[in-house]
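Table S2 (continued). Query chain:
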Amino acid sequence: MLSGKPMLWLALQRSPRAHASYVLAAMCLLLLCDCGLLFDDSAQGGASPIAREVAEEAGSTSPAAPTEPADAVSARGEDDAPAPQLPDPGENPEPISREATEDESISPVFECSVSLDNGAFAAWFGYDNRTEALLHLPEDARNFIHIDGLGQTPVEALPRVFQAGRQRHDFFVVSSTGSNVQWHLRTRSATASASAQQCNATERERVLATLDALEP
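Corresponding output:
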């Protein structure tokens, strides 16, 4: 029975379609082995060397399963990673609130004036807090309004808490005599006069509306 094995092997080697037929040939040889037709020796059992060689050759020519490059795997892993949580641009963090020190600069600023009846005028003031903090002025700090001819004048709207940055048109002071008005803040001051730059219509209306509300 074994005399036909070399011819079968030679036929497989010479066939132009041997590559495509290896798998089929291996299956046939294994079937023959199961039937006991291609044994070298009945005492040894198992498939013959020819059957094993053909089966190994067929397995080596089978296309391997495609593998994914390592860089593609790592790239997918990066894409699947959760994105970092970024702060919401619409959320404004609360500014730091603390007491102002002596060397921190909060500058008083005269903004513009509003002419009133009988030679009086209103002076709008703002300030510039050059820190990023909400500053509280100590009780004993120098902070007052002075009107020429009247001296130091109490003003309820005078700020003692200062927002960070440049704050415009924070409060106004009326000089009933038309004399100059000074705001003294620690070592700095700002002076307003009736002949200085006039305010726009919006700030003028704010002054007039406030004065009308104060009349009995």
